[in-house]
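Amino acid chain
________________
===
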Amino acid sequence: MATLTAEESLNYLYSLIPKGIKLGLKNISVVLNELGNPQLNTPSIHIAGTNGKGSTAAFCESILRHAGYRVGLYTSPHLNHFGERIQINRTPLSESEVIQLVAKVKNVVENLKIPITFFEFGTAMAFLHFAKQETNVNVIEVGMGGRLDATSLCKGDITIITSIAKDHTSHLGSKIEEITFEKASIIKKGGTVFAIKGSKKVHEVIKKISDQKSANAQFLGEHFVVEKTPGKSPPLLITYQNHDFCLKDLELSLAGDFQTSNAALALSACLHHARKTGKDISEQSIRTSLKDTSWAGRMEVISSRPTILLDIAHNPAAVKEMVKSAQKLFSYTRVIVIYGAMKDKQSDEMLQKLTNFADHFILVRPNQERSENPTRFKKILKKYNASCEVIESIPKAIRKVKQTALSDDMVCITGSIFTVGEAKQYLDNESDFKNNFSPPTGLHLNG
């Protein structure tokens, strides 16, 4: 059989997308078993939740890498390139590695005649790559839910559960207890879970599952605490305390007050992993790693004149946090929101939350099969008498903003990782528009 090129390999991968989302472990278990169960080679920190998974994973990776570990990182979806999903010490898959991994997994799938989804295929690639490259710890982000997610087969004795809200309700259930059950079910028997306490219902479900599995549940606010350091921001400074020590004025590179919780979860999990493996993580290493953490597309500012903010908020809870952070961090005269989302998202509620923030909406359609028609967004916004227009093409929307935005405006691009990814890819080639990569000059510094 002829070896596929990098382009052919990716085309094969993307051809699996129409198979959709099929939660279940039967097929991926068979494939991984045939590959030698590479997911069991290395201990993992396994991360579930509705919002903050990616940022928390980025914090974990940075903390562990700065402490000297060889760290595998598996996240999804990607912003621009498939290789971003699978990284070792923040180095994404190369073209040659994509070719080799696709060939290996494809051979198994076709020989076994196993129907497999795009996400399952990528997960198998990640586990295989990490095993081959001999990582000594992996940070694994759940794709959807947790209980029936392909990543749940990892050797994840340490679990993190970030904030939980309603999302993917057609797959995970409409009640917060149902959603929490799906996510918290990744907790391993006898393992340790670090979680945001959340509402009473969320807390009760996580505690119940932990007790049933004889797992040690550590809740933010009970077993470890984090507080924003009073004073000017940015930079965002936090104080972290657990039963062993207290660290003051830790600087976070990721913007938004909600990152304090993500950083605390990550730090707690990594310190626990270090203790399990007989390694110390120094205070200086912690400080450096939190300050150096990067995660594209999350409260990411790529220009200051006008301020251009990219954020992948794709559910009402995430939009609420984004708006709160943007209003606190930035000064601006007018806000233009470029919004595009998928059909299965709660755009009614997301747009409603954005109407108190945006002066004008440009409604777009990301180049994805699941993208919602922006004319539906326009109908929603009419209920709120919001100023809006439809420009389906994201590049055209950005060019329109380039012509009309003033230097003291804010342009917020949001609604989906696909909207942000497409915009970011276009802006990366627009050097005259991306005129300043430093923090915006109009930043509020009133803490």
The chain has 15 helices and 17 strands. The longest strand covers residues 246-252. The first helix runs from residue 6 to 14.
